[in-house]
Amino acid sequence: MTEVASTSSQTKLKARQKDFDNILIESIDETLTSLGESVKQSIYYHLEDKFEISKKDIPKRIEDFANGIEKIFGLGAHFIEISIMKKLYEKIGMPLEWNEDKELIFANYVEAARKCFRKEKGRR
Questions:
Q1: Which range marks the domain in which residue 26 is found?
Q2: What residues contact 112, with CB distance under 8 A and at least 6 apart?
Q3: Can you give the CATH number for the domain in which 82 is found?
């Protein structure tokens, strides 16, 4: 019985993970689309070509994605990351709060959103 319960909770966790990954990709997609469809396609192309990060792998390689965006956009990456985070937190129903005096670390905010999403979905 314990093994079945464990398998069931692992299945639910994987489902929540997949849900979050889809929401994250949607948030990234919407942000990049706001720059223009051809720009979005170009960014995905460069991420895959130069950094070997496919769109579907972004949730598993969020730090690599952030580094790629930072190399592509330089200081402008910061604004793109904030826009992605705003969309992501809005989609999961959580307020986005960050201290503007501290360095913004995109991967940390994504991981915090992932944990909140798991916890919130686990309650339902």
A1: 7-123
A2: none
A3: 1.10.1200.200
